[in-house]
Design brief:
By secondary structure, the protein is an alpha/beta fold. Helices cover about 45% and strands about 20% of the residues. It has a single domain, classed as CBS-domain, CATH 3.10.580. This is CBS domain-containing protein.
Length: about 170
């Protein structure tokens, strides 16, 4: 079995240019979730592309929340949760403004070379890359063109199904 047989096609994925703001990203994710309201695939990630339309990173729910709320102050070092609560309150009060001014590229997770895989690669190779790299997904490519997303959650569902079936024999 090849990676492309288990991937989510890029056409089913929420995508946004890197220079857009977080408000746009939230809206794109919401529209994508409504459009693909199926139990087997509910998008939780917005893929980020550059001017050449290459997928260069992703914007996960955590990235959006972190960008909107935890604006680290330089020079203060690591703060305790208790010390951060006043800043979080202030950030939440300003969340609507922040969502309009903060750019996707500022908070996205940029993909490393290890987070791309050929659509012709075996499922085993894909699983190894996901597990060894601790990646939630890989960008599937045909040559230099991105064609889909190979997700850990889909692999886990497949393996769980196979494990359950093996116990029925």
């Amino acid at each position: 079995m090849q990676v492309k047989e288990l991937m989510i096609p890029l056409s089913d994925c929420a995508k946004i240019p890197a220079d857009r703001n977080l408000f746009d990203a939230v809206m794109i994710l919401e529209v994508s979730r409504q459009r693909l309201d199926r139990l087997d695939y509910r998008p939780r990630v917005v893929l980020v592309y550059d001017r050449e339309l290459h997928i260069i990173g992703s914007l996960r729910q955590f990235d959006i929340m972190s960008g909107l709320i935890s604006r680290e102050k330089s020079g203060q070092g690591k703060l305790s949760i208790g010390e951060m609560i006043p800043d979080c309150r202030k950030a939440l009060a300003e969340i609507f403004h922040t969502a309009r001014v903060l750019k996707v590229r500022e908070v996205m997770h940029p993909y490393s070379q290890d987070e791309y895989i050929s659509e012709e690669a075996s499922i085993e190779e894909g699983i190894c890359k996901l597990v060894v790299g601790h990646f939630p997904n890989l960008i599937v490519q045909s040559g230099e063109i991105s064609t889909g997303v190979f997700r850990l959650s889909d692999v886990f569902s497949m393996l769980s199904r196979d494990i359950k079936r093996s116990g029925l024999k």
